[in-house]
Design brief:
The chain is built from ten helices and two strands, in the order ααααββαααααα. The chain is 73% helix and 3% strand. The protein has one domain. Strands 1-2 form a two-stranded antiparallel ribbon. It has 264 residues and is mainly alpha-helical. Helix 3 packs parallel to helix 9, helix 5 runs antiparallel to helix 10 and helix 6 packs antiparallel against helix 7.
Length: 264
Amino acid sequence: MEIIGYTAAVLIGVSLGLIGGGGSILTVPVLVYLFGIDVFMATEYSLFVVGISSLVGSISYFKKGLINFKVALIFGIPSVISIFLTRLYLLPLIPEEVLKIQNFTVTKNIFLLLIFAVLMILASYKMIRKSISEKSLDYQTGKNSAFVAAGQGLIVGILTGLVGAGGGFMIIPALVNLLKIPMKIAIGTSLVIISINSLIGFLSSVNHVQIQWKLLISITGIAVAGIIIGSQISKKIDGTKLKPAFGWFILVMGIYIITKEIFL
């Protein structure tokens, strides 16, 4: 199972390198089902894996001038605040037994996985539907669009804090549709936002958990190799054309998690 897990870690990195998001949504299921890691610990590990991988992936975009740091701040600062508050205060408030219906008990772990599965289905919808146009658009960082983007940053931060996902599937559409950022710059900027969000989320709660550093670093290293491969492939293949296929895969995974945790 670990061999399959490491293979999946490569695919997580490749997807981040190709489409700037989406791969992180697979990290927690890979850690839980293939490496046998507790759900809460998996969200912590995921933040580190996704954070480092996205940071490495953003380097090539930085060298090409494909990162808008002003937009990264508009989106990133609210995200960082909400991640910090979520990891420190909201997660500990979730009881070990969230809900009990006859013989079925929704534990904290099941609850987090169900939230994650819903996010996966939402992400798959955004990937499967008609791709956002990659035509260069004029920048439009007016007060209204910036305010809405900051609001989405807050939402992404809460979700990242809860389940350890980078939120690229929400960030990129927001950057393109709200702030009118060209797609390639949106991908580079998304990687910066994801890396900052994830690493700060990891650091905010790392002192409260026991980390298996050897395992975590090995998974991260393989994911980083994947993102380098993905970045190279993106020079030859249009990553956005692969999004629908990747979206269908994530949809199947999301349905599998719901089925497994509720019915099996």
